Amino acid sequence: MEEKNYEAIVEAILFTMGESVELEKIAAALELDKKETKKIIENLMKEYEKPSIGMKIIELDGAYQMCTKSEMYEYLIRIAKQPKKHVLTDVLLETLSIIAYKQPITKVEIEKIRGVSCDHAVNKLVEYNLVKELGRLDAPGRPLLFGTTEEFLRSFGVQSLDELPMLDQVQIEEFKQEAEEEMKVKLDI
Fold first, then answer.
1. Predicted TM-score (pTM) of this structure
2. Cα separation of 50 and 140, whole Å?
3. What pLDDT band is residue 30 in, cutting at 50, 70 and 90?
4. Neighbouring-strand partners of residue 147
5. 31 three-state secondary structure
6. Which CATH number is 3-78's, of 3.40.91.80, 3.90.930.12, 3.20.20.10, 1.10.10.10?
7. Which residues contact 135 (CB under 8 A, 6 or more apart)?
8. Is-cis flag, bond preceding 143, omega within 30?
9. Which of 31, 106, 138, 155 has a Cα at 20 to 30 A from 130?
10. Residue 94 burial by CB count (10 A; 0-12/13-18/19+): exposed, middle or buried?
């Protein structure tokens, strides 16, 4: 089979699946090794960079997905009316960041860091498909462990958790001081 046929097959797989597909699965479908398959996908990704094409292929932690280019969003809205957009409040963002950096993590551990109950926040993040249950901790009560999803990576434009920004110790101390000052102000009111 010539390469264009392989590209057509990859394109059909990614379009039809609608979600990310691991490189290994695509390679198995093509009956090629991962290196050859990755080259075919990278060639397709380059073709999709043309401004005349409204789609793109993104890589998410060793898997690939076909999606619409962001500059096409306004035209999609005209057709779909108003897609449901989830609002991430400060509480949800704080909880999500704790999960992203500390995963796998239990609700109790999140509550210890935040200092308040996190049931509602975690449930909302699971509902928004940004967080998922990863299993249970081998401890008394067998609490659920939570971690981020591919949708989290997609939503925040990163390919893997390794791309998340790292905070240095000075920033962490500054954040702690700001939080303590905010608490003092709230308690004085």
1. 0.56
2. 55
3. very high
4. 132
5. coil
6. 1.10.10.10
7. 104, 144, 145
8. no
9. 138
10. middle
